[in-house]
Amino acid sequence: MNALADLLGIEEEESTKICRKCGRDLPVTSFRWRGEGTVKKRINIDCKECVAADDRIRSKLRKTAPPVPKVCDCCGESPLKPYKSQHKKLCLDHNHKTGEFRGWLCDSCNVALSRAGDSLDGVRKLEKYLMEFESKCIQTLHCKQD
Q1: Would you say residue 21 lies in a domain?
Q2: Percent of the chain scoring above 70 in pLDDT
Q3: Residue 129 in domain
Q4: Between 43 and 131, residue with greater pLDDT
Q5: pLDDT tens digits for 30-41?
Q6: Which of 102, 108, 122, 145 could form a disulfide with 117 if both were Cys (CB 3.0 to 4.6 A apart)?
Q7: Which structural domain range is residue 20 located in?
């Protein structure tokens, strides 16, 4: 209870948040908290119901998915390389719309795919951006190619 609301004799409004997955405006109690220890705690972006549904899908997929390979299905790198993410395991990747298994990805590829919207359109936008930059570099001869 809010002390100021008590003092003024008004009813405190319950805070709400919109779930990224289902789009519903729900009370913050419908969301889990993320972070622990010295990490700042914050509310998850997906409601508990959507997280549970996604957990069920991943659990079923793990039972039927092919064995985890030694390298990422996307970049071909081992998740154990020192310059890669701190995550040492490959992530189960699946189509979030159909629930279909896609492959095993390192954390870096999994995050990149997610940030690109899990779509070819998002990846094409990134490719276009990099190609435009590379083109400018070649035209001005100021950039070195890797």
Answers
A1: yes
A2: 76
A3: no
A4: 131
A5: 999 877 656 567
A6: 122
A7: 15-64
Q: Does residue 89 fall inside a structural domain?
A: no
Give the C-alpha distances (Å, rounded to integers) separating 43 from 4, 32, 58, 73, 90.
24, 6, 22, 31, 26
Q: What's the CATH number where 45 sits?
A: 3.30.60
**Residue 110 one-letter amino acid:** N
Q: Is residue 85 part of a domain?
A: no
What contacts 26, CB < 8 A, 6 or more positions away? 16, 17, 18, 19, 47
106 has pLDDT over 80 = yes
Domain tally, the chain: 1
Q: Distances from the Cα of 109 to the Cαs of 46, 49, 113, 135, in angstroms?
A: 21, 26, 6, 25
Q: How confident is the model at residue 80 (pLDDT cuts 50, 70, 90)?
A: confident
